[in-house]
Amino acid sequence: MKTNLLFRVSRPLFQLFGYGQRRESTPRGMFLVVFAAFAATCMQTLIRSLSQQIHPFQIAFFRSLFAFLSFTPLFYRYGLQPLRTKRFGSHLMRGVLQGSAILMSYLALKFTPLAKVASLKFTQPLFITIMAVFFLGEVIRIRRITALIIGFVGAFLIIRPGFIEIDAGALLILGSALIMSGVHVLIKDLTKTESSVTLTLYMTVFITPLAFVASLPYWQTPTLKQLALMFLIGILGNVSQMSRAQSYRFADLTALMPLDFVRLLWMALFGFVFFGEVPDIWTWAGGIVIFSSSTYIALRERQQRDAAKSRQGD
User: Fold this and answer.
1) 11 part of a folded domain
2) How many structural domains comprise the chain?
3) 0.90 exceeded by pTM
4) Blockwise average pLDDT, block size 10, the chain, 314 residues
């Protein structure tokens, strides 16, 4: 009875997002990308606000803890089956790397303007391309190499070394993007043998204690309101990730990638409304350059994959 009631209550939400459906629906996919950016911006705004009260490492710990606890029903039904793996070492490496990237990102959010965070995070696809060349043996040619160079020129426009003092927040965001590019390479390899549930579970299994140890020197007992906000941060993060993943079921990457720029618009708007931040012209210019180059690289990679599949089909 309780299960049926839960299904009836949640059914409209599942219908809206189309979970479990695979038919093509470009408008729905585009909506989900914009919504994912909105949810992620709400999460990062809350992190920015809450980090003025408690340390970002503590926020990262509770965010990961709540994510792990959300899997309790899964353990109740399947026991430890989702944790069975022959690649424990790879999961451990991925957890440590991703945990470090999250801690760096959360710390940067404490004192870095939101629009600047969004602009510099667009560098992640650039780093992923470089990692794929070195660790996966992928080949890139002159057009993607040119796009990479242009993308990093965009990052220099934002940071402007030699013209202004390089701030720690920018370096933390770039460091986080670099580490996450390595994480994506690991995930790409792990998906050959591991399910998405196992990947997500091990992420929380390793990140939770890592964030806890990092937060100990700054620990303070959170209030009920702060716990509620951190729980909301966890929900928003999960909603954003699920919405983005689901969008790829409905629409082609060529239709979705240009909409990713809305992240910068949301972050700029929220930064202005809640923190009085006004992005300078260099942040906008750098963000546009980085986004354009990373979008070109993603679309170019998609075209080459499709061409390779077509040749195999012939």
Assistant:
1) no
2) 1
3) no
4) 42 46 70 92 95 95 89 79 86 94 95 92 88 80 88 89 75 93 86 82 91 96 95 88 80 74 92 93 92 85 69 60
